[in-house]
Please model this.
Amino acid sequence: MLPKLLPIAILTALLSPNIAHAAPVTITDKEQTDLAVTLYTHNLGLIQDSRTIPALTTKDTVVISDVSKQMQTETLQIRGAGSIKEQTLNKASLNYYTLLEHHIGKNVILAHNQPNGQELQQTVQLLNVEGNTALVDNSGRIESIPLSSDWRIIFPSRPPELLLKPSLTFRSKGTNKAGTAQLSYLTQGLSWQMDYVMTLSEDNNSLVVDGLASLVNDTGTLLKNARVRLLAGDVYQDRNPRHRAKTVMMAQAMAEDTGAPPPQALSDYQLYTLKAPVTLQHQQRTQVPLLHADKVNVDSLQRYQFYISPRVGNQTLKVKPESFIRFTNNKKQGLGTPLPAGQVRFFSPDKTQELHYVGSAHLNQTAIGEEVELAMGKAFDVTITQHQTDFQTAFDGTVVAYELRIKNSALKSRDVELSSLFSQPWKLISSTLQPIEKNAGMAKWKVTVPGNSESLLTIRARLKKK
Model:
């Protein structure tokens, strides 16, 4: 009897689902031992994720949950899990629309609320869905059903291929013992930007600077207790998938060294390492302080540009100059650290030291030693009245004269920069003040107007024919 039973036993063993289709090895974020995230400023991030794994055989299928749904799979590197044979990103998440798509051509249950409050249910075949209308086969008749509060679709089962969260599946040649697997990949859905709050002193001669980094996570997964690094600068993103693997290797190498205090210069970029771990929730913006300066010495000034042309001007213009602050990014002025690009919002105290929002500007990436100039909007207390006082034609061109009256209604003095722009060769004949700067197309004057008074600038220039 034994020779007859042995083939049956072998056949039973081969057909057993526990042997032919072993359950996958699932690794969740509970097995996570380390998570490092580098955020870039243009919808890009580098994730380095370490998780403990058991010993693997060549037949094991490993499912790693809680990964980014926007992973660039061509940049994925898996180390510590044996030689990888295949890897797949599973993004088919469970939602209403994927359920509808999965059940097209299959039976579903239609539920309809009757006027008397009772609900009727009927099994139909789902043919198609467009907008809020479903086409169904009801016993051979094609009917359209509005998907509204009176109608709903009941799905008979949950498709196993639709996941609650995105996951990564891979198979390898196996490992001899349990260990730690390291995953590295680039992903979209991560970004950061700099936001500055600058508080002016009462005399407008200094600033308190607070720099906040706003971190955005739209990867579809929670990034818990991550070591966060921020790269300031415009990183080139190659659209060719074959080249992205090189990009992740470079980004990983750039993020490796965290020993230097922030910020750390990396090639043409600046790398900031946050001191404490940060948890980034999906679809949330998290702000963390990145830099602070108690007193940055600044120059406050107003600026007005006007054109001088070989035409008669009969109009008198009354304008408000633009208000600016200017400082040099060095230790002497109170800063001396690389400044990432970002939006600046200015606040100024009143006599009771209550702060008021007074304007905003965009700060470009600024290296140490560079000059910063930020526009704050139109000046309130300073008014400039401009008109042409003379116009004469000459054999080689035109002679024109202008008068600019600057009125300062504030109690404190104001520095005003006046710039004349020329569209043709010119020569200054006379001026009540000497220009502080001149070139082929421009002359600039600096006028200090005492509090509650006026100053006058008159200029005469010859505009030569081209």
Confidence is low (pLDDT under 50) at residues 1-20, 241-249, 257-261.
